[in-house]
Amino acid sequence: MAWELDSDRPIYIQLVERIQKMIISGYYPPGGRLPSVREMAAEAAVNPNTMQKAFAELERSGLIITQRTNGRNVTEDVTLIDGIRKSLADEHMELFFEGMKELGYTRKMVIELIENYEGEDK
Amino acid sequence: MNELVEIVGLTKSYNANNVAVNNVTLTLPKGKIIGLLGPNGSGKTTLIKMMNGLLTPTSGSIKINGRFVGVETKARVAYLPDRTYLGGNQKISEIFDYFEDFYEDFSREKAMEMLQSLNIDPSQKMKTLSKGTKEKVQLILVMSRNADLYILDEPIAGVDPAARDYILRTIVTNYNPEATVLISTHLIEDVEQVLDEVIFMKYGQLVLYTSVDMIREKHGKSVDAYFREVFAC
Lengths: 122, 233
Known about the structure:
The complex is a heterodimer.
Chain A: H1 11-24, H2 37-44, H3 48-60, E1 64-67, E2 71-74, H4 78-102, H5 107-116
Antiparallel strand pairs in A: 1-2
Chain B: E1 3-15, E2 18-29, E3 33-37, H1 44-51, E4 59-64, E5 67-68, H2 71-74, E6 77-80, H3 92-102, H4 108-117, H5 131-143, E7 149-153, H6 161-173, E8 180-184, H7 188-191, E9 197-202, E10 205-211, H8 212-219, H9 223-230
């Protein structure tokens, strides 16, 4: 059940990305409570100090809020969460278009391809 | 005071041609999980034995929690040696009695819990156990103490991958912010996810002491890959 992590990038950055995704996807909803550092570290099978560092990073970005007496919660600021979702989506798009360009597709061809794509049924 | 271990100018020479540890100066903080890494014969076990008072330094000093290595530090250090030291005729439960008697900080409850998770029967005699199971029992004994410093010399070398995961998980979940765990191992890939920091040793000298994420950030590769580069033969 340990989290799947790359071996060539800093662990805390990957933990930040992973938790960001859990928040964006609503696994941890806005205003929802987060597990403790210890619980989260055990689940991910990583060092609690590293998890602590990831939480500190997420706090800096405002995505999670620490109450002195009451543990950690996801921010209630939905605009902030949407903003992070948008910037992650932009990153995906950039990679996607880069890949398609390498295959010789123009922007227009790509858009056409997406509209006729039947892989994902939505 | 955040320093747990202070090593200053530590040297151990077995004879004029064999200097196992050569002028090592190193300070280890509390609350970290630290890997002690180096090729065979780089002085890891000699360093560990001196930290446990099993070898006397030729020169230099080691302090643990502000005290020179001795009876008081031994009471606060949980040590897993690289070899078995338990008698073959004893049952596991008898060894637990022994540890309970000997170490004030030994938790029998914790030990029994771990035995159960690994499906080991406490009424078995040590000599009837497989090599891997023996290693598990010894690690359970060490991790069931509430020590300031855990020193594990090759703790996972002989056990299967599933038990390895369990052991690493045990180290992470038993983690106490005041205690430090020092792990010597060759199986870097398996442990690097739980390490804060790594120490690289070569020919008895300290080559590098840094954090895992620093290596990944600076070199864009895992500690395992970086180790192979630094110690390429």
